[in-house]
Amino acid sequence: MPVGQCKLCLLTKDLRNSHLMPRSLYKNARGSGSTGNQDPVLITKTSRKKSSYQVTDYVLCGDCEQLFSKNGEAYVMPLATQLNRKFPLWEILKATKPSVRGHRFDAYSYLDTPNVDRDKIAHFAISVFWRASVHTWEQENGDKVRIDLGRKYNEEVRKYLHEEGGVPKNASLQLTVCSDEINQKSFFVPHENQKHKDRTFIFVARGMTFFFRISNTLRGFEERLSIVNNPQRWISVRDCGDPPIWR
Questions:
Q1: β-strands 235-238, 171-178: how paired?
Q2: Are 188 and 202 within 8 A, CB to CB?
Q3: End-to-end CA distance of the chain
Q4: Residue 57 belongs to a domain
């Protein structure tokens, strides 16, 4: 176990082999058969194959790994689509009347679903975006995974994640719960959304699509639909493939 500076607490400690995306996402993406290769299907720009590879590196100490688990990941992962294909968060929302019914989406405010802990959801999602911004990770084929929130916002987010401050005031985090099977079974690492080149970053975690932007020039809908820095704290539901909401 190497010794180095933990990216979160900034102390020199033993570093764990940290995951960029939670280990449970890989586990739940495995096949359910009893014979043959049950590894998840890894899709890159140039190939499609079954692989057991997981994106990890020595980034965080054990104490900070536990902090991430306690404040978000341990709560959120049981809400994502499971190995048995059940999607608990979607089931909670389907059993609740939304405040807004649109042509292609439903939207649930905090008052509609007070039992859904948005603080833990936000902590989990923002931690993943932050991890992708403060360290360069590597895919199995050598592709690099890195986004850039900027030095100023990296530090603001770090303090929030380390319980030294609140959510940065210029942050917007939107959560769309996907009703389509493809996105419920998929997950991918953070990257800049190519559909709208506005420095919005995105990742999918088996049915949960997160959009994150931190800027002093947020657009109106980014502030209105955010589950942070907004009293309504909306969660929307839609078919994420019709039309695709990310690219």
A1: parallel
A2: no
A3: 37
A4: no
Contact call for residues 239 and 104 (beta carbons, < 8 A)? yes
DSSP 8-state assignment for residue 244: B
Domain count, the chain: 1
- Please give the helix or strand (H or E) that residue 64 lies within, else none: helix 62-68
Q: Residue 13: is it exposed, middle or buried by C-beta count within 10 angstroms (0-12/13-18/19+)? A: middle
What per-residue string of b and e applies to 115-135 under the rule 16 or more CB within 10 Å gives b? ebebebbbbbbbbbbbbbbbb
- Look at residue 78 and tell me if it is in a domain: yes
- What does DSSP say about strands 137-138 and 201-205: parallel, antiparallel, or unpaired? unpaired
Per-residue model confidence as pLDDT tens digits over 65-98: 999 999 999 999 999 999 999 999 999 999 999 9
Residue type, 232: Q
Determine the structural domain holding residue 103 and report its residue range.
66-238
| Count of other CB atoms within 10 angstroms of residue 143 | 12
